[in-house]
TrEMBL record:
It comes from the Eukaryota. SMART domains: LNS2. The lineage of its organism: Eukaryota, Metazoa, Chordata, Craniata, Vertebrata. Residues 336-372 are annotated as: Disordered. InterPro entries: HAD-like_sf, HAD_sf, LNS2/PITP, PI_transfer. It comes from Camelus bactrianus (Bactrian camel). Residues 147-278 form the LNS2/PITP domain. It holds the Pfam family PITM1-3. GO terms for molecular function: phosphatidylcholine binding; phosphatidylcholine transporter activity; phosphatidylinositol binding; phosphatidylinositol transfer activity. This is Membrane-associated phosphatidylinositol transfer protein 2-like. One of its GO terms (cellular component) is cytoplasm.
Amino acid sequence: MRHDNSSILELDGKEVSVFTPSKPREKWQRKRTHVKLRNVTANHRINDAIANEDGPQTVTGRFMYGPLDMVTLTGEKVDVHIMTQPPSGEWLYLDTLVTSSSGRVSYTIPETHRLGVGVYPVKMVVRGDHTFADSYITVLPKGTEFVVFSIDGSFAASVSIMGSDPKVRAGAVDVVRHWQDLGYLIIYVTGRPDMQKQRVVAWLAQHNFPHGVVSFCDGLVHDPLRHKANFLKLLISELHLRVHAAYGSTKDVAVYSSISLSPMQIFIVGRPTKKLQQQCQFITDGYAAHLAQLKYNHRARPARNAATRMALRKGSFGLPGQSDFLGSRNHLLRTISAQPSGPGHRHERTQSQADSEQRGQRSMSVAAGCWG
């Protein structure tokens, strides 16, 4: 993703701002960077951040190129911007960081720019080529209630989100929106590595899922379920948030039980098993029937903190540059084939890079069953 001017979309799809990088492009800090980045596409990402009003407000990003993170951006400048008054579109340049040997940057917002309760777009731009990453930082008061959904376990009706367009379980979006309308923070968790963030968030956006915080693993991990549990425990113990309900597959029951949820608060998609029948509520008749039960039995009360309900964003995912991400590679190849012919080896290397990227996607699809 590269831009000189870029529109950011508000969550209802309206264009509210045109972003212009605060700093012009410069030569790379390291001479070899130019060589490393030939014919590879950017796959930068910023972790969705959650913070308290009175605690540290930190965003972290990683800057990588190529399929499966083949190339790391090392020792290069990254400019940090934040929209401090969304959705008015007032972008504030905060600082310039230098990527580590692993392509990472971390930035803590200073006291002079401390953020109040709300959801704020964050953009980090690579100075050398103006590729970028987008995300959000969500600032919440202690005691905020949330509902958590395991992406693969709750939503995907087909094997893997790495497919061309995996189907969504019928009624899943309506259930998430029901909880959002009641004022709960929506948390999406997955055991997938963060290198898949652009694709997974684009999939959520394509299917109009309500906006929420999305948590990925930091690369490929041995025990993704433990990562999910540790992330949720951090929200509860360090940020003092309160989990109200959780959705997932049978693999997620142990994760949700470990954060002290009762069986009445754990909703599992899939065939009931005797082993787990006393540990959760199985959604056996689909999400539409489950939603009707939530409404009829008044099991879904509004979130308690009225101020938080007002501050949390309504609407669906609308990260800039991601709505068409699922088709971007095909578009890239069409663009290359339509360009005036240059040195022959350039097209061959680009096609080869695209082929290897597709192989990487297939490898991720095979592994998807492990992530939950």
